[in-house]
Write a structure and sequence with these properties.
The chain is α/β, with parallel strands linked by helices. It is 60% helix and 9% strand. The protein is built from 14 helices and five strands. It has a five-stranded parallel sheet. Strand 1, helix 9 and strand 2 (181-185) form a beta-alpha-beta unit. Helix 3 (32-47) packs across helix 7 (120-136) and helix 10 (190-200) packs parallel to helix 11.
Length: 282
C-alpha cells in the first residue's frame, strides 16, 4: 500500500487525510481496509442512486464519461474537477452532473476495480476526488433542491454502533417543543440509516456521537450521506464534541454543538441561510 501511495504526487484526498491524521494522533494507523471502506462508500452509494429520466442534452457521451473516469485517477489533482466545472458552465443541470456524469464515471471506476483494471490506491484517490467535487457543487445541488421555502425540519440520528440514544432522544424532544419537525433514527445499521435518511432528502442532519471510538463510524456515515444527499448540512453533537472540539473538521461535519441550546441556535442559523439563498433566487 505504501508503495502504491507514493505513486501519486499529491497527498491523500479529503476526507481520508483528516480521518487518517486523527487516528495517527491517537497512536494508530488507518489500515488499507479502512481506506477501501471509505472508497467503497463513495463508489457504491453514488452508483446505487436511482437516476431520474435525463434529457439527451444532460447525458454525456460514453467517451466523455470514460475521459472523466481517467481524469479522476490521473496525476492531475484538478483534472476531474475542471471537467465537471466545464460541463456545469456549458449548462448541464445538477441531475445531469450527479447521475449522468459523475455517477456514471463512479460506476465505471467501480467496474475497473472489480475487473482489476484499477488498483485500490487509484480507486481510493478517485473516490476522494469525487467526494471533493460533490462538496464543491453543494450550492448547486442545494439551489436546485430548494423548490419550496425550507421549513424547520431536520433529521437526528445516532451513529451506527452508538448504544446511547438518550441524548439524541432528548435533543429531538427539545427541538420539537421549539416547533421543529424532527425525524429521529436510533439503532439502525449503517446502510439502513443512509437509505432512510436519503429517502427524506433532508437539508439538515444532526448526528449524535457519544464516544471517540465512534469517530470512524461517524466519518464513514458522513461520507455516505454527502454522496447520497449532496445538498445536506451536517451538525455533530454529543459527548465527543466536548472531548475533542476539533471533531467537526476531522469527520467533515459542517458544525458541532456541545449542548442542545447551541445545536438549536446553529440549526436556526442554517435555516435562515437557506431562506436567504432561496429569496435571492426568487
Amino acid at each position: 500500500m505504501n508503495d502504491d501511495r507514493a505513486y501519486f504526487s499529491g497527498p491523500l484526498p479529503q476526507p481520508v487525510r483528516q480521518i487518517q491524521a486523527d487516528i495517527e494522533r491517537r497512536g494508530q494507523q488507518l489500515s488499507e481496509t479502512a481506506l477501501r471502506v471509505l472508497a467503497r462508500e463513495v463508489i457504491l452509494r453514488i452508483s446505487r442512486t436511482e437516476s431520474p429520466p435525463l434529457p439527451a442534452a444532460a447525458r454525456p457521451s460514453t467517451s466523455e464519461i470514460e475521459a472523466l473516469c481517467d481524469a479522476l485517477i490521473s496525476y492531475d489533482d484538478h483534472a476531474g474537477a475542471d471537467m465537471v466545472r466545464a460541463a456545469r458552465l456549458a449548462g448541464m443541470p445538477a441531475d445531469g452532473l450527479y447521475h449522468g456524469y459523475i455517477g456514471e464515471a463512479a460506476r465505471r471506476l467501480g467496474q475497473r476495480w472489480d475487473r482489476d483494471e484499477a488498483t485500490a490506491t487509484e480507486v481510493i484517490l478517485g473516490a476522494g476526488r469525487i467526494y471533493a467535487i460533490l462538496r464543491e457543487l453543494r450550492a448547486v445541488f442545494l439551489a436546485e433542491h430548494l423548490d419550496a421555502p425550507p421549513g424547520s425540519e431536520a433529521v437526528i440520528a445516532c451513529v451506527p454502533g452508538d448504544m446511547h440514544g438518550i441524548g439524541a432522544t432528548i435533543a429531538a424532544d427539545s427541538l420539537r417543543r421549539r416547533g421543529w419537525d424532527i425525524a429521529l433514527y436510533l439503532g439502525l445499521s449503517h446502510s439502513a440509516l443512509v437509505e432512510e435518511i436519503a429517502g427524506r432528502k433532508p437539508t439538515m442532519v444532526v448526528l449524535s456521537v457519544s464516544q471517540s471510538s465512534l469517530t470512524f463510524a461517524a466519518a464513514r456515515l458522513i461520507v455516505a450521506l454527502r454522496v447520497r444527499c449532496p445538498q445536506v448540512w451536517v451538525l455533530v453533537g454529543g459527548p465527543v464534541v466536548t472531548e475533542d472540539p476539533d471533531v467537526a473538521r476531522i469527520i467533515d461535519a459542517d458544525a458541532a454543538a456541545r449542548s442542545i441550546e447551541e445545536g438549536a441556535a446553529l440549526l436556526e442559523s442554517h435555516l435562515d441561510a437557506l431562506n436567504r439563498l432561496r429569496s435571492g433566487r426568487a
